[in-house]
Amino acid sequence: MKKTKTILAGTLVLMCFFVTTAFAAVEDRLKEGKKLVEASQLLIADGQILQNCTEQDRVKMVDKGHMMIQKGRDIISDGAMMYTSEGREDMLEVGQMMIHGGNMLLKKGKQQGELTAKEKTKIKKLGKDMTGLGNLMLEKGKLMTGE
Predict the structure, then answer these.
(1) Rounded distance between C-alpha atoms, residue 81 and residue 69, angstroms
(2) Is 41 in contact with 134 (CB distance < 8 Å)?
(3) Nearest to 41, CA basis, from 108, 140, 144
(4) How deeply is 52 buried, as exposed, middle or buried, from its count of CB atoms within 10 A (0-12, 13-18, 19+)?
(5) Where is 102: in which H helix or E strand?
(6) What separation in angstroms does the CA of 130 have from each of 40, 87, 94?
(7) Residue 139 pLDDT exceeds 80
(8) Closest of 88, 97, 41 to residue 68, by C-alpha
(9) Lowest-pLDDT range, 54-58, 72-76, 103-107, 137-141?
(10) What's the predicted TM-score (pTM) here?
(11) Among 24, 65, 90, 94, which residue is least crowded by beta carbons within 10 Å?
């Protein structure tokens, strides 16, 4: 009888542990999904900036480039604090794309002379790629949060 009670008590403790762990995992996934949605929305907005980029204001291009690089670094930093490897990878991918876009704006903004049609096309294509990745990660984040 005493042996049965001990086994039953041990089983209940283990069940409580597993249930608590499962709830924590669900909560972590929700938090990560919300952060991914926020980062994706920033990526989409900056991708649209690149798509609509004209070379008329080079100083503005350089400023936007610096801001995009900083946002990318912040996203990567936030991603490093994620609990799951999937969340870290997603945030790293979004952050790297943001930094890549910022570097492109920085480089083209500091460049002397007129931008060629090929360079303008390259900037617009990168903007489309950023928007596409942003939309993909936005949907992934929404799935994680259950929206």
Answers:
(1) 19
(2) yes
(3) 140
(4) exposed
(5) helix 85-110
(6) 9, 18, 8
(7) yes
(8) 97
(9) 54-58
(10) 0.78
(11) 24
CA distances 9 to 18, 19, 70, Å, are: 14, 15, 53
DSSP string across 122-137: HHHHHHHHHHHHHHHH
Looking at the 3D structure of the chain, how many domains does it have?
1
The span from the CA of 73 to the CA of 132, in Å, is: 20
**Residue 101 has what pLDDT?**
92
Residue range(s) defining the domain that contains residue 14: 2-145
Buried b / exposed e along 91-124 (16+ C-beta atoms within 10 A): bbbbbebbbebbebbbebbeeeeebeeeeeeebe
The 10s digit of each residue's pLDDT in 64-115 is 999 999 999 999 998 888 888 888 899 999 999 999 999 998 998 888 888 8
In angstroms, rounded to a whole number, what is the distance separating the alpha carbons of residues 102 and 69?
Answer: 5
